[in-house]
Amino acid sequence: MRSILKCTIAALVVLLTLSSSLRAQGITPLSGEVSANVGFNNVITEIVKNYFNNNSTGINKEYVQFGFSGGINLTKHLAILGEFNYLPLATAATGYTGSVDAQLYGGAVRYSLISANKIVPYVIAGGGGTRLAVSDSYEGVTATVSKTGSNFGAGGGVSIYVGRNWGIRPEFRYIRQNQNWDNVNYNLNTYSGTVAVFYQFGGKK
Q1: Rounded to whole angstroms, how far apart are CA atoms 167 and 29?
Q2: How far apart are CA 204 and CA 194, in angstroms?
Q3: In whole angstroms, how far apart are CA 58 and each of 41, 61, 189?
Q4: Which CATH number is 192's domain given?
């Protein structure tokens, strides 16, 4: 969690300095937007029910996240987005030699709290699907098992415009993931801190 906060604070300090010397235009209504992000996730796994008892157990780990999104700024305040994020959990979650990864996909609604040219704080909420895949190989034979689930979450951040059409966006979000593996229910509480680079195009000037 401390690394998430350090990453977000460092990005804010550097980019606020940069934004003061460059032209920025803020949100353009009816414009399109694409972005790519990187950051950290703190994942707390809860096993709600297992084969031996009904006690909750789990792990608490930090993982790297990569992702991208695209959407439309309907107004200077409201935007709708499609999102995809990838978490390479690898051996850190299981101790095995195979790979473990999680994929989160879905949609979100972002609401900007003010209309400004440079610094625009916002809140965001959304949900969708989750795919968790576990693969392993032995003597040239690879097996992969995957399950799908659901996710929903909310958070907030700041859009920092450092040019006419682009900027950088630090964001913090809580995401709840629900999975079921052969009658074993897994609930993943994810706290993510990311920094995205976004590009805005088109729209009503």
Answers
A1: 16
A2: 29
A3: 16, 10, 11
A4: 2.40.160.20
How many distinct structural domains can be found in the chain? 1
Scored b (16 or more CB within 10 A) or e, 34-59 reads ebebebbbbbebebeeeeeeeeeeee
- The contacts of residue 139 (CB under 8 Å, 6+ apart) are none
pTM here is 0.78
What are 64-114's pLDDT values in tens digits? 889 999 999 999 999 999 999 998 876 544 444 566 788 899 999 999 999
**Residue closest to 186 by CA, chosen among 45, 69, 60, 63:** 45
pLDDT in tens, 126-151: 999 988 877 776 666 666 677 788 99
Q: Is 114 left (phi over 0), alpha (psi -120 to 50) or beta?
A: beta
The boundaries of the domain holding residue 67 are 2-201
